[in-house]
Amino acid sequence: MSDGEYDYLIKFLALGDSGVGKTSFLYQYTDSKFNSKFITTVGIDFREKRVLYKSPGPDGTSSKGQKIHMQLWDTAGQERFRSLTTAFFRDAMGFLLLFDLTNEQSFLNVRHWMSQLQIHAYCENPDIVLCGNKCDLSDQRVISENQARELAEKYGIPYFETSAANGHNVSQAVEVLLDLIMKRMERCVDKSWIPDGTVRANGPFTPDPSEGSEGSRCAC
Amino acid sequence: MACEKEIWQKIGEGFVQEYYNQFDNTNRMGLGNLYSPDACLTWEGSPFQGREAITGKLVNLPFKRIKHIITEQDFQPTVDSCILIMVFGQLQVDDDPPMAFHQVFMLKSQNCAWACTNDVFRLGIHNIPV
Q1: Residues B36 and B108 sit within 8 Å (Cβ to Cβ)
Q2: B127 and chain A: CB distance < 8 Å anywhere?
Q3: How far is the C-alpha of B22 from the C-alpha of B30, rounded, in Å?
Q4: A34 part of contact set with chain B, CB < 8 Å
Q5: What region holds the NTF2 domain (chain B) (predicted)?
Q6: Quick check: ipTM above 0.90?
Q7: Is residue A216 part of a domain?
């Protein structure tokens, strides 16, 4: 799955308290196929998925699409010990920040995770999508949609109510995050594109398929 | 030739066995009794002082099941008649993949009983993927 050609390698990271459903969320997104790869030395688990990203062109027409190789990084439980190694944040371009709609503490801890992100992520305002998970458990819900939306607005990030159990909004949340990242890369790329006016098929960030995470380098 | 174990090693082994038995097989409330009243715990860099704070931390760890498997344990007597212990092993929590851990204990004899005065815990995970 990790071999073959792609235009971009994008690394996402799932964050949030233990028990909010990060692993189930990623499992649901990767078509319920269990292809997790655990790296013992850094306590990180990751899954992979290929998607085709189509951004609307400047004239409104859809471009031919870019092959995205996504790596979805999961903590594999180290957050239970309150220890997230900086390895976990390294090179990630986008962040899925999850809390549990039935657990108030996990919602209050969103603040903690945001500050961790601001310290360890590649820049101070990385692309983040906030997900209130377990929305299928409506009778146990303790956080209202309004409360969550207010918090997301405060941070200026999109919010989704998701259910890793039934798949509600799971792929939508990831797609919005991917869209934010691709737009950010385009903004960076534009600067280098415009002067010489050349348009390369895969853009300047084309990774060498034999190499590592070239796609995660953003010039912002 | 069978070598008689030193006294500090016997005491240390007994402590380690009791500590992880309590940790894995009880609600962890009893762990507090293994610490001295003013003991120090450093858990993944966060400090906790006193038996009450330590018990609170250990009891409230967010998992249902944990299993420690000891790989190696080392013991030394100190100049002030304490026992220094280093444990190196793996732990598995609920359905998570197993992770390495390191734990260091200092035991001191107080009122004719051995109690843990210092405890330092770290997961064996690193910052740089290899």
Answers
A1: yes
A2: yes
A3: 7
A4: no
A5: 11-123
A6: no
A7: no
Residue B102: C-alpha distances to residues A67, A199, B42, B87, B117 (Å):
43, 53, 12, 6, 17
The structural domain count of chain A equals 1
Could you tell me the domains of chain B?
A: 7-123 (3.10.450.50)
Q: Which helix (H) or strand (E) holds A218?
A: none
- Say whether A57 sits in a helix, a strand or coil: coil
Residue A30 lies in a domain: yes
Domain of A62: which CATH number?
A: 3.40.50.300
Q: Which domain holds residue A75?
A: 8-204
Probe site for chain A from B23, B28, B96, B101 (most A CB atoms < 10 A): B96
Q: Round to whole Å and give the CA distance between A71 and A18.
A: 20
In a domain, A215, yes or no: no
Using alpha carbons, select from B110, B105, B123 the residue that is nearest to residue B15. Answer: B105
Q: Evaluate whether residue A212 is within a structural domain.
A: no
The answer, yes or no, to whether residue A157 has pLDDT greater than 80, is yes
- Residues A120 and A123: their CA atoms lie apart, in Å, by 8
**Secondary structure class of B48 (helix, strand, coil):** strand
Average pLDDT, chain A: 81
- Reading the block at residue B93, the tokens are 């929590």
